[in-house]
Amino acid sequence: MGSSINQLTMEFPSKAVNIGFARTAVAMFAAQLDFTLDELDEIKIAVSEAVSNSVIHGYKGTEGMITIICAVGEGALEVQIKDEGVGIDDIEKAFEPAFTTAPKERMGLGLVFVKEYMDELIIDSVSGRGTSLIMKKSPCHNKVEV
Amino acid sequence: MDINLKRVGRALIVALEGELDLATAPRVKDTVDQVLARDAKLHHLVWDLAKVEFIDSSGLGMLLGRYNKISARAGSVVLMRPAVLVRRMLVMAGMGRIMQFVDSEEQALAKIGGDTDGQLH
Ligand SMILES: Nc1ncnc2c1ncn2[C@@H]1O[C@H](COP(=O)(O)OP(=O)(O)OP(=O)(O)O)[C@@H](O)[C@H]1O
Ligand SMILES: [Mg+2]
After folding, report:
1. Are B3 and B110 in contact (CB under 8 A)?
2. Residue A102's pLDDT is what?
3. C-alpha to C-alpha distance for B98 and B13, rounded to whole angstroms
């Protein structure tokens, strides 16, 4: 994001306790654009899903670093979440609802939620090297508030 | 995450307070599974979600896992008064097709079909 007007970088180990902090921090950063409270909640969910995936799948419970880079510019939020974990073998499959490589109690919905709640999602992953998710969202001013 | 358990006849009512994600869902799972394992007479599960402020796929997966356990006992699972965002997530995950949404404990117990042994604790 070349013309970014503000930026935030966070780096933290892949512990589950950090997920709540990460999603809250990103939502607070996003609040400088005029997102509705619902939209901020949607951003929280997308961040939570991406970071959870890095913890669960990327590092498989072992410890590694997760990096989040947020930027706002031109009325849009861009969030990049990356890990240096195992990577995704088949990205197309990973997007399918109900597809999961986790052994138990995973519904395969995380990436479906990210796609649903963010305007744009780009996944870049190299098997054995790691995964990067870039997601974008703009406030939807046309939405009718009730 | 605060977990409050109450037994009404053959139903376990689990009231949760806080955020349901990868950091908290495992504790809810362990707590509920322990109670279910100890008491084979418990057939139904009522989730009081009024004070759940956040849920993601880890929380949804945990709910589905408990649903599967209760189904194996031929019981039913009821979702009580989730907030708008939580409800939207539950619906998106297809929970509305297998569990019932209710607004009160009375309604929850009515859905369970009076299967409460008539005893209130
Ligand atoms: N950061 C990552 N590193 C490695 N694999 C990943 C990563 N993110 C996603 N995946 C792969 O993509 C699959 C689909 O991810 P998705 O979040 O949609 O579902 P899930 O995590 O398996 O289940 P749920 O999100 O419902 O708990 C995962 O099962 C995993 O194989
Ligand atoms: Mg996931």
Report:
1. no
2. 87
3. 18
Kindly report the nearest CA distance between residue A76 and chain B, in angstroms: 23
Of A51, A55, A70, A50, the C-alpha closest to A9 is A70
Q: What is the CATH number of the domain that holds A40?
A: 3.30.565.10
pTM here is 0.93
Tell me which chain B residue has its CA closest to the CA of residue A98: B93
Describe the crossing of helices B25-38 and B57-72 by its angle, rounded to 10 degrees.
Answer: 10
Model confidence pLDDT, tens digit, residues A107-142: 999 999 999 999 999 999 999 999 999 999 999 874
Which pair of tokens denotes residue A38?
């619902």
CATH, residue B93: 3.30.750.24
Which chain B residues touch A48 with a CB distance below 8 Å?
21, 54, 56
ipTM of the complex: 0.91
Contact A107 B54 (CB under 8 A): no
CA distance B90 to chain A (A): 11
Token pair listed for A49: 């899903």
